[in-house]
Amino acid sequence: MSGHDTSPSSNNNQRSARPLRVPNEYKPSWIPLSGAAVLASLLGFYIFGTAAATIRDTAASPCSCGVRDHHEHAVPTGRPPAMTGDNAEQFDKELNLPEWWMGITSLRRDMAARATGHVLELAIGSGRNLEYYNWEGLSAAALAATPTTTTATAAAAAAAAAAGISRAGGGRGRSQPPPPGIASFTGLDISVDMLDVARRKLVRTVPPMKSFATVVRASTMADHTGGQMSFMDDRLRLVNSDAHKPLPPPSDKFFAAGGGGDDDDGGGGALQNQQQREEKKENKYYDTIIQTFGLCSVSDPVAVLKNLASAVRPDTGRILLLEHGKSWLGIVNGLLDRNAHRHFDRYGCWWNRDIQELVDEAARATPGLEVVRIERPNISQLGTLVSVELRVRQQQQQQQQQRGEQGK
User: Fold this and answer.
1) Alpha-carbon span 374 to 362, nearest angstrom
2) Where are the beta strands (DSSP E) in 173-275?
3) Nearest CA to 287 among 125, 176, 401, 166?
4) In the beta sheet, which residues pair with residue 240?
5) What residues contact 363, with CB distance under 8 A and at least 6 apart?
6) Is residue 254 part of a domain?
7) CA distance to 55, 173, 244, 271, 346, per residue, from 52 (Å)
8) What is the rounded distance in angstroms from the CA atom of residue 150 to the CA atom of residue 167?
9) 274 in a domain, yes or no?
10) Would you give the DSSP letter of residue 257?
11) Is the CB of residue 88 less than 8 Å from the CB of residue 52?
12) What is the DSSP letter of 128?
C-alpha cells in the first residue's frame, strides 16, 4: 500500500478530530432557557413558602365563621386579630427570620437611612425600623438640653446644633433641603400594644432615653389622637391614633422662636407678624414620612395617602413607602387571591391589593402629589414587594387648587 493511500478509518479519525460547530441560530438559546429556569425556581420557592405559611396559618387560626365571602369586604383593623398585650412582643420576634430571607430587613435599613429632619413614621407598629435610623444628631441635641451635660457632650451637641439638627426647620424656606440627621421623630399607630413594644425598642436604641422621664398625655379632641407618650423633651413621640385622622404636626419646641404670636407686633409691625404666620405654616410639615406595610392594613388606602400628602413639606419633603401587594405574575396573584382571607384572619391585612394602582389613584386625586419613583425590589418575591417615593409639588398644588376653585 502506498504512502498516499488513505483508508476509510483515517478519514473518520480526521473528521472526528474537527471541533463540533454549533449553528449560530442556536447559540443565544441559553439566555432565555437560563432565565426560564431561574424564574421557575423563584416561582417554586415563592409558591412553596406561601403554601407552607397558608397551611400553618390555617392550622393555627382557622376561620370560625364558616363563611368565606364575607372576608372580601372586611375592614382591616391595622393589627392582627389574635394579638394582645401579652403576645405582641413575641409576634414581633417571629417576623425576624421571614423578613430576613425575604430581603425586607435590608430594605428597611436602606429606607430608614434616608430619614432626615422632622420624621413621621405612620403605622409604626412594633417599631421594626427603629434600630436603622440615625439617632446621633437627635441624641446630641437632647443631651445638650440637660442640666448635667458635660463639657465634651455639650461641645458635640453644639456642633450638631450648628449643623441645623437640634432646631431644624425653623424659618427655612420651601426650597431648602432638610438638614442632616433626625431633628424630631413621631411614630403613630392605632395599636396601643404595638406602641408599647416600640417604646421598649426606643429605650434600647436611643441611649439618652434612659436619662429622660416619659411624659404621658391623655387623649384630647384637639389633636385627634388617643393619647401620646413623649420623650427627650418632646423630641421623640409615640402617638396612638388612626391614620385616617388629621396627623399631628411636629412639636413646635424645635423651631426658631418668632416672637409673641400673630397678635403681638413685637416692634416689627405687620411685616413681622406676616413672617411669623408663614413660619408657623411651614412648621406644620414633616421632612420625611415613612410607612412600611401600612396600605394593606387600612380601610381606605387612597385617603391615607392623601393624608400623608397634607403633612409632608412641599417640594423638599419625601414620602417613602414599602408595601406588599399584587405581583406582575398572574399565577402569583391567583395564589394571593385564593389565600387572602386566611392571611386576613391571621394578620388583619389584605396582601393582594394593587399598590401601584392605589398610589396612581391618590396622585390623580391629590393636588401636587407626584410619584418620584416606584420599584419592585427583590426579584425573589416576584413583584409582590413595592417601594414608592412621593413628593408634593407646591406650584402644581396651587395650580390644581385654583383650577378646582374656578370650576365651582
Assistant:
1) 14
2) 182-189, 215-217, 228-231, 236-240
3) 176
4) 189
5) 369, 370, 371, 390
6) yes
7) 5, 53, 34, 66, 14
8) 20
9) yes
10) -
11) no
12) T
Mean pLDDT of 180-196: 91
Q: If you average pLDDT over residues 26-39, what whole number do you get?
A: 47
Start-to-end CA span in the chain (Å):
109
Sign of the torsion angle spanned by Cα atoms 75, 81, 84, 87: negative
Q: Are 254 and 184 in contact (CB under 8 A)?
A: yes
Pairing of β 385-392 and β 318-324: antiparallel
Torsion (CA) 125, 126, 129, 132 in degrees, nearest 10? 160
| Phi and psi based region of residue 382 (left: phi greater than 0; alpha: psi -120 to 50; beta: remaining) | left
AA identity, residue 118: H
Q: Which of 177, 195, 178, 194 is nearest to 186 (CA)?
A: 195
Residue 74 · residue 348 · CB < 8 Å: no
pLDDT value of position 408: 58
pTM: 0.73
d(CA 265, CA 105): 52
CA nearest to 177, candidates 277, 314, 276, 307: 314
Task: Name the residue among 318, 289, 302, 291 with its Cα closest to residue 355.
Answer: 302
CA 235, CA 183: separation in Å to the nearest integer?
7
For 66-116, how does the pLDDT look when each residue is reduced to its tens digit (9 = 90+)? 334 444 445 666 667 777 777 888 888 988 999 999 999 999 999 999 999
Q: What is the largest CA-CA distance in the chain?
A: 125
Q: What is the DSSP letter of 220?
A: B
Q: Are strands 318-324 and 288-292 parallel, antiparallel or unpaired?
A: parallel
Domain count, the chain: 1
Burial 117-149 (b: 16+ CB within 10 A, else e): bbbbbbbbbbbbbbebbebebbbbbbbbbbeeb
Residue 121 has pLDDT above 90, yes or no: yes
Find the CATH number of the domain harbouring 187. Answer: 3.40.50.150
In which domain, by residue range, is 318 found?
Answer: 79-324+358-406
Distance CA 116, CA 271 (A): 31
Three-class SS state of 361: helix
17: helix, strand or coil? helix
Rounded to 5°, angle at Cα 76 from 203 and 293:
50
Q: Per the domain annotation, does 397 fall within a domain?
A: yes
Q: Helices 30-60 & 330-347, crossing angle to 10 degrees?
A: 20
> 183 with 168: CB under 8 angstroms?
yes
Cell of 406: 374656578
In a domain, 62, yes or no: no
